[in-house]
Amino acid sequence: MSSPDKKITVSIAASGHLSWSARYNGEAILLPSTIALTLAEGKTLADKPVVTKTIPLSAKSVITAPVPVKRKLIPEEFNELTLQCKGNYSVIFRAYNDGIAYRFSTSFTDSVTVMGETADFNFSDNFQTAWPFDEPFSFGAMRPSPAAPLGFGSAAPPSSGLGMFGGPPPANRATNGAAPAAPPAFPRMIQSPFTTSYEYLFRDSLLASVKDTVGLPVYLSTQKGTKLVLTEADLHDYPNLFAAGTGKPSITAAFPPFVLKAGAGMGPMSTPAETANYIARTNGKRSYPWRVLIISPDDKSLLENDLVYKLSTAPVIATDWIQPGQVAWEWWHASNLFDVDFKAGINTRSYKYYIDFAAKYGVRYILIDAGWSKNPQVDIPAITSYGNNKNVGVMLWMSWTDLMADMPNILDTFAVWGVKGVKMDYMNRADQKMVNIFESVAQETAKRKMLIDFHGAYKPSGLNRKYPNVVNYEGVKGMEHNKLGSIRITPSHDVTILFTRMVAGPLDYTPGAMHNSTSSNFKNISSEPMSQGTRAHQAAMYIMYDAPIQMLADNPVLYMREDNYSKFLTAIPTVWDTTIGIEGKIGQYAVMARRNGQRWFLAAMGDWSARTLDIKTDFLPAGKHYTITIVADGINADHYPSDYTIQVSTITAGDPLKISLMPGGGWAAIIAPANRPNLP
C-alpha cells in the first residue's frame, strides 16, 4: 500500500510472523518489523496468521477541531488496508502523507488478558535520535544513554557540544548556575522507566548506542535527513507504549505491567507495590491503540503535524461551552506579590489581586495551585464569586489521590462553587489503570462543564480529541524546573521540545518569566525564579507552544510594571485556525506562523547562538496591508537578557522580514489588518 501522494510505501508480510516495512521517497526507513499481540493461555495474534480477507479503503475528509490546537480545519486523507485473520481479529494499516500506523482489532465474546505486545521498529540504519532521559532533579531518576558520537551536535552551535540537546555552552559548564546546596523540592527516587513524571531532556545519540527504556515520543533522523517521530494514538483502556533501546538500530515495545496494588498511601511519588505478569485486562471486542511512525521531509514540517489527533476518537461530548485561554498562575513565583497593601501568600486577598490583574488584561482564568485545600485563609466560593463579577474563571489544583478518593462529590462541590477547571497532578504512572483514571476524570469534569489540565502526566495520546475539555498536559520538562534545581531548561531545550514532545500534542511548559538570565548568571531561586534566554524568547513561546490553556507564570506586579509588554502577551490567543512551520532545526532554532481569525502571529526562538533569519511573509493573503507589532531582543540582550524592544510598523503581504536573534534569543510579532487594532 502507499500514501495518497505515493511518497510513502508500506509492505506487509503475513508468512510466519506478521511484519511491516516502509520506504519514503525511495529511501528505506523501516525494515521488516514484527507485529504481535499475546493473550493469556498462550494465544498470540499475528503469529502464523491466516488472512481470510483483505479490505482496502481510501478516505478523504476534513476534521473540524472544536479546540483547534494547530488548525481549525484538519484535512484527513489516507489509504487503509485491513487484514481480517482467522481467529476473530484484524490488523489495520494506514498510510497518510505524513506518516504510517497500524492497530489490532479483536472480536471476542469474552474479556481478554493481554500478556504482552510485540511492536518492533527495525530501522534501515543507525539513525540519529533525540533520545529522552531524566535527570536527578526530575521526579524520576537519571538514566542517561551510553555515550555516542556527536550526531546533530556535530553541526550544531556550541549548545549541543556534549551531544545533548538543551545543554549550556561548554565554556560555561563549570560555572553555570550550580544547583542549590539545599535538597531539591522533591526527593530523588530510584524509579522504573514506567513510574516517572515523563519530563525528559533529550540526548543527541545514535540509535544503536541506547539500551534503556523511555517514554514516547522518540525523534529520529535518517542519513538523508528524513525526520521520524515514533508515538501512539487513540490510547484507551490499555497501558502506554514505551520505547526500549536494543543496542542495535531498532526499538522494541515495552509496557507497564498491570497494577494490582498501589504503593503505600497511594500518595504523590508512590510506586506500585504489586504488579501482575500481564499488561491489561480488557474488553474482547475492541480496537487497540495505533502504533504511529510520523514521517517528515524536514524538521519544520513537524511543527504542523497533527497525525496523533487525526488517528484518535472523534469528540464524544458537547463542546460549545469549552473556552480556551490564558491563565494567571501563582505557584511558579511562590505568590510572592510585593508593592501591595496586604500580606501576600496563599490567601483570599492575594487571589482577588490575581483576578484584578486578569480582568485588566482580558486573561480568562486564574489557577489556584497547591496549598488551598483545608486552608482557612482561602475562601474558594468568595474567590469564584469575585472572579465571576469580573469575567475571570477560577481553576483549582488537586493531587490525583485526593480527587479520586471522592471524585463525584468533590467535583459536585467545585461546580457549586463555580470552579471552571481542574489541574490534576502527581499521577506519575502510565499503566492501564492510570490510563482509565485519565479518561474517567475527563468524563466527570466534562459532565460538569469543567476543563482538565493533567500534570505529572504521560504524553498526549488522543484523549484531548475524544474529550476536548482536556486542554493541556504536562509530561514536559518545563519552566518549573528552573526553581526545582535543574540548570538544563536552556534555550536549546526549548527548541528541542518543539520537534519531540510537542509532536504528540499540547504541552504545559508554563512560560512567561520576567527575570531572564544568561547561562553563566542563571540561578535556581524558588521565590523569584528566572529563565535562561531572553525576554523575547519567552514571548515567542506564547505563539510557538501548543497550549489551549497557557500560563502566565510570573508575578502580576512585574507584568503590570511593563504594561505594553503585558498587553502584547495577553493579546496572543491560545488556539489557532492555521499553523505553518517556516524554518527550523531541532535544538537550534525554529520559526512558525499562526493565524487566528484575521490576525497572524509570527515567532522565532533560538539556542545560545546568535543568528539572523530572512523570512518571507508570503503566508499572508496577497495584496493585503498590515500593522505589525514586534517584540524583539534588545541591543544589550546578549548580556542583559531582559532587554527587549517593542516596535510598530506596517508591512504588505510578501514583504521580507529580517529577524535577529541574540544568544538565547527570540522574536514575536502580531500582524493585523491595517484597519484593525492588533493590541487591546
Strand-helix topology:
Blueprint: E1 8-13, E2 18-24, E3 27-39, E4 44-45, E5 51-64, E6 73-85, E7 89-96, E8 99-107, E9 112-123, E10 128-133, E11 164-165, E12 201-206, E13 213-215, E14 218-221, E15 227-233, E16 242-245, E17 250-254, E18 259-261, E19 274-275, E20 280-282, E21 285-287, E22 290-296, H1 299-302, H2 307-310, E23 325-329, H3 348-361, E24 365-368, H4 380-389, E25 393-399, H5 400-405, H6 407-417, E26 421-425, H7 432-447, E27 451-454, H8 463-466, E28 470-473, H9 491-494, H10 501-504, E29 516-517, E30 531-532, H11 535-544, E31 549-552, H12 556-561, H13 563-570, E32 578-585, E33 589-596, E34 599-606, E35 611-616, E36 625-633, E37 644-652, E38 656-661, E39 666-673
Parallel strand pairs: 23-24, 23-31, 24-25, 25-26, 26-27, 27-28, 29-30
Antiparallel strand pairs: 1-2, 2-3, 3-4, 3-9, 5-6, 6-7, 7-8, 8-21, 8-22, 9-17, 9-20, 10-12, 10-14, 11-12, 13-16, 14-15, 15-22, 16-17, 18-19, 32-33, 33-34, 34-39, 35-38, 36-37, 36-39
Biggest β-sheet description: 11 strands, antiparallel
| Helix count from the secondary structure assignment | 13
**Name of the top-level CATH class of the domain at 1-129 and 204-312:** Mainly Beta
Number of strands: 39
* Estimated share of beta-strand residues: 35-45%
Q: Compute the separation of the termini in Å.
A: 52 Å
Shape: globular
Q: Tell me the structural class.
A: alpha+beta
Q: Looking at CATH, which topology of the domain at 1-129 and 204-312 would you report?
A: Beta-galactosidase, Chain A, domain 5
